[in-house]
User: Which sequence fits this backbone?
């Protein structure tokens, strides 16, 4: 299935169909999620209304990791099979991933000031997410630094694969080092350590963020493919 | 073995005959490290507390500085392309380059680090940890740095890009190195941290030259 989408035309056909659906899901889920999380969900017994920051912070953090993981996966596919769409995917997703990571860092900081009494602590989780942000920035700088585009794509792909070491470190940082950041409340195997009244808005936000990412990344991919075609046309080749 | 040694010798000779440039890395390291006592005030307790961090960050920056002279100059004048017609495989070229870089910046930095540590009032007993820890750290820097340098061949501002690219990857080594030295200063066992540092080097030893070789070949083609 992956191989058949190496043909940009076939991929575009699917993308044009999926993109509006993803956009609609994003709008609906974000509307429900924002309303329930900011208005109807209960205050935390300790944190008060500050807990509402969590509904943005946690999905953004999930997306930051998810986007990087997909980029690293696409980089691998692109390097091994010279899969054009996979190669373009990493470049299309990188600014979005960087934005999610930035949102995660900023909201975490806003939450940390009233709760921990500091905008920033050098906790393992915070530090590793900061490194993830640097990796995104490094990738963006590297991918755009060459006159020969393919070179930027290849160099960026290797950086993504090397930096993927950081992903499990972020995931398990709250378990390996017992520091300030609380461990995960949601795991697949155990019953969630969070009440349904808070869980549902959180899940709605997570769905909304994922759909929003899909909608945006598909637009960016379509643009990237169109830009590629234009360039080939201008150089006098067939498209 | 002979072609490898020839390659390393060539780099060393070039580096040293460039006169002042050859010593720049070392000077940079010493100057940067001695800026800290001036900026923080010469109080012994503060400096002793900060010595590990000062030495590591200065060494990191100095090592980064020498990469450009060693790699990008050879790329500009076409040496790398010529080298690939030699009997040495690309991975061998990468290893020889990294070895040369380590001898120039790594070994020299370890020796200079000993002197600087005394300027920052580190107790002499901590040197027994500082030396192996810096030795491993500089090896890791040479391995990753060489890879990063070759990855940025043909980029518009390779030096700046290289720093942005490689510094985040150095962070684990930096943390382990500083923790090892802090443990030594607190008279705790530093061996676990040294072993973890060794593990990082052992992991990078096969991977970094291999990635570098891939990029050398790619550069030749384009």
Assistant:
């Amino acid at each position: 299935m992956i191989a058949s989408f190496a043909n940009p035309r076939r991929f575009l056909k699917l993308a044009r169909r999926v993109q509006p659906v993803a956009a609609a899901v994003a709008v609906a889920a974000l509307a429900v999620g924002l309303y329930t999380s900011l208005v109807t969900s209960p205050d935390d017994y300790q944190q008060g209304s500050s807990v509402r920051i969590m509904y943005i912070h946690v999905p953004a953090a999930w997306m930051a990791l998810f986007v990087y993981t997909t980029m690293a996966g696409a980089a691998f596919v692109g390097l091994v099979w010279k899969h054009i769409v996979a190669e373009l995917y990493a470049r299309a997703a990188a600014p979005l991933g960087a934005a999610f990571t930035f949102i995660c860092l900023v909201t975490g900081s806003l939450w940390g000031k009233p709760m921990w009494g500091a905008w920033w602590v050098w906790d393992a989780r915070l530090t590793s997410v900061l490194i993830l942000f640097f990796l995104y920035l490094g990738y963006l700088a590297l991918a755009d630094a060459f006159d020969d585009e393919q070179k930027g794509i290849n160099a960026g792909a290797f950086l993504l694969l090397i930096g993927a070491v950081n992903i499990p470190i972020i995931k398990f940082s709250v378990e390996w080092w017992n520091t300030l950041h609380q461990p995960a409340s949601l795991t697949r195997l155990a019953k969630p350590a969070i009440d349904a009244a808070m869980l549902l808005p959180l899940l709605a936000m997570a769905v909304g963020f994922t759909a929003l990412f899909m909608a945006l990344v598909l637009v960016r991919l379509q643009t990237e493919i169109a830009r590629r075609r234009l360039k080939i046309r201008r150089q006098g080749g067939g498209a | 073995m002979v072609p490898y040694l020839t390659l390393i010798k060539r780099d060393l000779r070039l580096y040293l005959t460039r006169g002042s440039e050859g010593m720049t890395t070392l000077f940079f390291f010493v100057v940067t490290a001695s800026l800290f006592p001036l900026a923080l005030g010469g109080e012994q307790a503060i400096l002793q507390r900060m010595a590990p961090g000062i030495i590591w960050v200065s060494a990191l920056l100095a090592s980064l500085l020498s990469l450009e002279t060693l790699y990008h100059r050879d790329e500009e004048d076409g040496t790398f392309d010529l080298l690939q017609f030699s009997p040495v495989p690309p991975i061998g070229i990468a290893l020889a380059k990294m070895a040369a870089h380590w001898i120039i910046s790594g070994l020299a930095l370890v020796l200079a680090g000993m002197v600087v540590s005394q300027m920052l009032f580190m107790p002499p007993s901590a040197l027994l940890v500082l030396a192996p820890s810096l030795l491993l750290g500089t090896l890791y820097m040479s391995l990753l740095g060489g890879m990063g340098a070759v990855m940025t061949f043909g980029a518009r501002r390779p030096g700046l890009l290289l720093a942005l690219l490689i510094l985040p990857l150095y962070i684990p080594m930096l943390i382990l190195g500083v923790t090892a030295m802090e443990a030594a200063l607190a008279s705790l066992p530093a061996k676990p941290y040294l072993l973890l540092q060794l593990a990082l080097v052992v992991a990078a030893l096969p991977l970094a030259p291999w990635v570098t070789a891939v990029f050398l070949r790619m550069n030749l083609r384009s």
In short: The first helix of chain B runs from residue 2 to 17. Residues 2-221 of chain B form one domain.
